[in-house]
Amino acid sequence: MNAIELMIEEHKLIKRMLTVVRSFSIKVLNNENVDYSDFNKVLDFVRNYADKHHHSKEELILFKRMSEILGERIAKGPIMGMLTEHDLGRLFMGNLEAALKKYQAGDDDSRVDIIANAIGYTDLLNRHIDKEDTAIYTFAQRSLSKEQLAEIDTLCKDVDTEATKNNLQDKYVKILRELEVIYIDSNK
Ligand SMILES: [Fe+2]
Ligand SMILES: [Fe+2]
């Protein structure tokens, strides 16, 4: 599997977590008895797997090389758009964390901010991932040379090997599965 194919596989895991987040948010909306601390597991997954691991391969390797090689029109257009969406995702997660703290301190109204930021994030990321899968990544594969793509593969492989040493992928697949059992499987 090359670097881009692996990133598409990572998107599938991230999208599964987005489905969990939506289901979780609906339970919050219905005032069901949910364990709000599970949102901390979501935050951990989003920040350390989706953002630190996956987005940093995009920001520091793939998108960086695309910007350098394909020029300013690409760097300031579609790539800038993707980076802005990564930032917006971080804002949603920061707001979600703040709303969770307020709720846990006794402010019941904060549930609306939990839902708003959680759902805002899932909408943003679902669209973002679709754009990458269907436009940005395919454009990279079409526009970069074999050698340039091979260089990206090598750089990403280093990141993946290091992450594997730290059991990062296994850890976050496990968290995802745990949450799916609670928020998805139980609804079937
Ligand atoms: Fe991205
Ligand atoms: Fe991505």
Tell me how many strands there are.
0
Helix content: over 70%
* Separate helix tally: 6
Computed CA radius of gyration, to the nearest angstrom: 18 Å
Describe what is shown at a glance.
The chain is mainly alpha-helical. The chain is 87% helix and 0% strand.
Key descriptive features of the protein:
single chain, 188 residues, mainly alpha, 87% helix, elongated, binds fe (ii) ion
Explain how this protein is built.
- The chain has 188 residues and is an all-alpha fold.
- It is 87% helix and 0% strand.
- It has helices spanning 3-29, 38-70, 72-104, 110-143, 146-165, 168-183.
- The mean pLDDT is 97.
- One fe (ii) ion binds next to helix 1, helix 2 and helix 4.
Task: Please specify the SSE layout and strand pairing.
Layout lengths: L2 H27 L8 H33 L1 H33 L5 H34 L2 H20 L2 H16 L5
The structure holds fe (ii) ion (2 copies).
